[in-house]
Amino acid sequence: MVTISPARDNQREEFAIARALRRFFVDQLPPAGAEFTLRGEEAHHLLNVVRVRAGEEVSLFDGSGAVACARLLRGRRGEAALQVLSVGTADVEAARKLTIACALPRSARMDFLVEKCCELGVCRLVPMVTRRSVVDPLARQENHFLRWRRIALEASKQCGRARLMEITAVLPFESALVTREAECAGMIATPAPGPGLAEFAAKLHPGQSVIAFVGPEGGFAPEEVDSAARSGCAAISMGPRILRVETAAVALAACLLLG
Amino acid sequence: MVTISPARDNQREEFAIARALRRFFVDQLPPAGAEFTLRGEEAHHLLNVVRVRAGEEVSLFDGSGAVACARLLRGRRGEAALQVLSVGTADVEAARKLTIACALPRSARMDFLVEKCCELGVCRLVPMVTRRSVVDPLARQENHFLRWRRIALEASKQCGRARLMEITAVLPFESALVTREAECAGMIATPAPGPGLAEFAAKLHPGQSVIAFVGPEGGFAPEEVDSAARSGCAAISMGPRILRVETAAVALAACLLLG
Description:
The structure is a homodimer of 259-residue chains.
Chain A: H1 6-21, E1 23-25, E2 35-38, H2 40-49, E3 57-61, E4 66-76, E5 79-89, E6 98-103, H3 107-120, E7 124-129, H4 141-159, E8 166-167, E9 171-172, H5 173-177, E10 185-190, H6 197-202, E11 210-214, H7 222-230, E12 234-237, H8 245-257
Helix pairs in contact in A: 3-4, 3-8
């Protein structure tokens, strides 16, 4: 529907390359001065997509928060030989550690949720099965996990995040509930009237970690809401409109991390 | 990837029908007591998708905030004869009127943006062309508009909203800037450090309307940021990570309407 004109696509490419596409992921950053070889998808991206030339500098990150500046020595047969120039840390994490535990929505909506939560700075994502869940999480779960991890990695490269968002295995709601640590504030999103996000956020200490539970389209079952209340989670109204799983999750992330 | 098992799909259907799919859109609501005929896509949806039977009740809305309860008299040849039982208004709008004016992202991302802004309660959406825009808005603009309107309508039915989000024609940034009314607070999103959303929101009167400008992936050009500042818009930092257009727009909507 929307088309990209060739001239503007070039312009877009310039911006994208300037800021995001020159970041590459490595499993572990070598120390400053070390030479090493990048292989696989990231090397292909560096050599054939972004087309970095020998002598040019790129950024590297390993998902732990550490970043490095490196120079391409040579590229050959899909392998990039790089020298690390300097190593440091990137301070682009949100001040608050937020865990979003949400009922698994259908495929495309989950892809979107992973990307947006990563961009907004969510620390950990817990996909859940609840009483009223509509998605069968056992269908090729391993593939899902790899797909979501790839989406989170691409979003990290795009947005400049140096620490990877953790994505856990799919958990039953009750198991997700007991992962909450004592000092972490808990909330469960509900369509019922009651205290809203602003009231919840106002009671948090600066930097206090939060876990937010988001139900499926049919909502949490009453027993689930009761379990959450007994475990100390506040029931928080998401307003008079019924939000989809991914809308509620992304709205919570925005309000608790940016608002 | 994620598959829906038949049993659970039925369960999902029950929930969906119970709350959202029994809402139908009419151009203008007839008065209480009136009989009228629903035709076209909405009649098809009522008769063949949701399968409402004669004697059953449904909800109607016309996008102005008015809602009605009506009973199906009979369905025949794709036409549904209905009698309006009562007419009222639905109070599910956000307390604040928020206009999101954003650079047009690529097709699928704009579809998502329209759906999420509608669910979160955005009042008006202004797609823009900016200096660094990458999308050619003149490519079949009329089709886009109809597509976005359809997405907003479906999202309204889903989330229970009775007033349709207004979607304007695609405007150049400078034209969008002058649509701001005097009492409406203006802000322009920037990746640069500076005051954040919480500080901006704290200065708003309760219920004060807001217009938020969101730039393309390459950001606003410096002249555009200057124009916005001269017209009284606050430059607001969206944090240290670089957000995509649709992420920034949805995050702003969440923070200013729910946070």
